[in-house]
Amino acid sequence: MSQASPRSSANSPPDQQQTKKDISCGEGRAILAFSSPDKTKAMSDRTIHPKVGIGHVHLKVAELERALAFYRDVLGFQLTQRFGRQAAFLSAGGYHHHIGLNTWESSGGLPPPSGTTGLYHVAILYPSRAELADALQRLIAAGIQLDGAADHGVSEALYLRDPDGNGVELYWDRPRETWPHAADGTLEMFTEQLDVGRLLAEAAGSMPRSGR
């Protein structure tokens, strides 16, 4: 991608001056132009549209087949497209992709060491407690160990690692009207131990699904 030419200069009035920052864009580079601090402050007072969501996560992995064995074969995501041995895209419900996996810069690589920045975990939202219980049953059948299980008041969550050491959270949200709030009305999440045995009992009536 070619570089964009900044429109402003050092001689422009302060309210028209812009700062720029190089960012990586595929194999090329692009220049982002940022508004002046006053304009940025004005924009920060306007909240993001409530329908905006996190569309997908794209992970660097060491071995594509190993990652597919987890996200497709254990969790049950459907493979929507594949690029040889280097990349694959998976989804739930026919979406183009919720998860991307690639080895472009990470083939044979190791997880980042402790103390570095980056991904804390990928959180996968299930539509109901029964579906989360089904996910737990899948993990047990595959012999995958949990790092933890927690009740956060707003949700119930399972924590584990994928084959590349990435943190993975599997969770379901309680109905919004039951979320705990403080006296001043602010959200008041907490962390308590989740009864995994009771959650697993939810999976008893779950029906197996196919069609990967």
Structure description:
With 212 residues, the chain is of the alpha+beta class. The protein has a domain at 117-212: Signal recognition particle alu RNA binding heterodimer, srp9/1 (2-Layer Sandwich), CATH 3.30.720. 18% of the residues lie in helices and 27% in strands. The protein contains 4 helices and 11 strands, in the order ββαβαββββαββββα. It has helices at residues 37-44, 64-74, 129-141, 196-201; strands spanning 19-25, 28-34, 57-60, 78-83, 87-91, 99-102, 122-126, 148-151, 155-161, 167-173, 192-193. Strands 7-10-9-8-11 form a 5-stranded mixed sheet. Strands 3-6-5-4 form a 4-stranded mixed sheet, with helices on one face. Strands 1-2 form a two-stranded antiparallel sheet. The longest helix is centred in the middle third of the chain and has 13 residues, at 129-141. The protein starts with 18 loop residues before the first strand and ends in an 11-residue tail after the last helix. Mean pLDDT is 85; it is low at 1-21.
